[in-house]
Amino acid sequence: MQKIVIFGATGSIGVSTLDVIKLHPDKFSVFALTANNNATLLYQQCLEFNPSYAYINGADLATTLQHRLLEANSNTQVLCKPEDLAYLAAHPEVDLVMSAIVGSAGLVPTYYAAKNGKKILLANKESLVAGGRIITDTAKLNKAQIIPVDSEHSAIYQALPYGYTSLDEIGVNKIILTASGGPFLNTPYAELCKVTAAQAIKHPNWSMGQKISVDSSTLMNKGLEVIEAYWLFNARPTQIEVIVHPQSIIHSMVEYIDSSIIAQMGAPDMKTPIAYALSAPERITSGSKTLDFTSLQNLTFCDADYIRFPCLKLALNALDENSNVAAIINAANEVAVAKFLTNAHGFYDIPRMIETAIEKFAGTTPSHIEELIALDLEVKQYCTTI
Ligand code: NAD
Ligand code: MG
């Protein structure tokens, strides 16, 4: 029986993780669940999964939640202090850490899970984008394992031999990340200038949280994923390629030096990569539908358009382990997306804000977590003013 803490339990990935866990009560028990402010869902999850701890962001919310849980005869202890996230990630009873908070708020739990040698199921790509060197070095030093949950990275992980040591040793030529192209794949530039948040969050294939949905519409999500792949697989920048595949059936591919390409396929349902992250290298059921090949009309592919989607180019240019630009992009993008979601800014204000932040803050990469958190905060504060 493995004990798991789920950071971001009330989000899209958190809920799907609990759906998979529910299928395997003999294998996993829930040690802790965390949420930002969705106390209603967290309360229901606590009653269903009976964790030792629940975390919610705010003392008032925590007091009310604790009261309601006691009334329902639950033993779950409610936490709410900022340092409690690190406490749960580091807890000696925890085996598995699902990192599924959105944005750089996921940095602290991911870092403490790495520092304490946990098996990390990584959905929160932002922590690797911002802190690639710090997170991967900390994980290595403390023998923590980082297993990708992001569907593209899970596909690549599944197309590589389990436990390999380096891409060169196993004859990998390149990694090919597929991108759906998002809801604006064929939208002309003039119309993109006027699109609204409501249009951006309507993803054609995947049902996801709001921030990642906007990131998919700007192709920043693919840019962040290229940086994520760079750190996860220790790849050279020239070994990572992006190709648009609007049907999201092939989740990504690995090309070997003999020109053989291994692709991983499946319905667009995050329960499959979540199940693999929970059990790799073994397989467990996920509850996702299997593919019906006869119902697939076409699998098509094309290049990404870097002119209409400048965020992708900005992220690709940040593939440099000695620079802080990836962390700046990550922080600025979070603020820009939040402003876009309230319709305070337009679609192209997102890359504009990111470029302005890069010009102001570009420098060498932070070497400590505290420095990284300070940079993240400083960039975010600046971006609220531009
Ligand atoms: P979501 O918005 O649906 O959920 C986010 C979760 O994080 C919620 O539980 C929320 O309560 C919590 N949270 C937010 N801010 C917090 C804070 N300051 N402190 C503590 N908790 C906080 O997001 P999601 O779609 O589930 O995505 C989560 C992560 O997984 C993101 O990094 C995203 O890029 C990644 N991811 C998601 C998908 C997907 O299909 N949804 C796919 C691949 C990767
Ligand atoms: Mg993805």
Question: TL;DR of this structure?
Answer:
The chain has 386 residues and is α/β, with parallel strands linked by helices. It is 44% helix and 15% strand. It has 16 helices and eleven strands.
Q: What would your notes on this structure say?
A:
44% of the residues lie in helices and 15% in strands. The protein is of the alpha/beta class. The chain folds into three domains: 2-148, NAD(P)-binding Rossmann-like Domain (Rossmann fold); 165-267 and 288-316, no CATH class; 322-386, Rna Polymerase Sigma Factor, Chain: A (Orthogonal Bundle). α4 (83-90) packs parallel to α5 (107-115). It is globular, with a radius of gyration of 20 Å. The site of magnesium ion (MG) has 4 residues, from α7.
N-to-C terminal Cα separation, in Å? 50 Å
Question: Order of helices and strands, N to C?
Answer: EHEHEHEHEHEHEHEHHHHEEEHHHHH
Work out the helix count: 16
Low-confidence stretches: none
The number of domains:
3
Within the CATH hierarchy, at the fold level, what is the topology of the largest domain?
Rossmann fold
State the shape. Answer: globular
Q: Helix content range of the residues, please?
A: 40-55%
Cofactors, ions and other ligands in the entry: nicotinamide-adenine-dinucleotide, magnesium ion
Mean pLDDT over all positions: 97
CATH-assigned homologous superfamily of the largest domain: NAD(P)-binding Rossmann-like Domain
CATH class of the largest domain: Alpha Beta
Q: Tell me the radius of gyration.
A: 20 Å
Side-by-side strand order of the widest sheet? 4-3-2-1-5-6-7
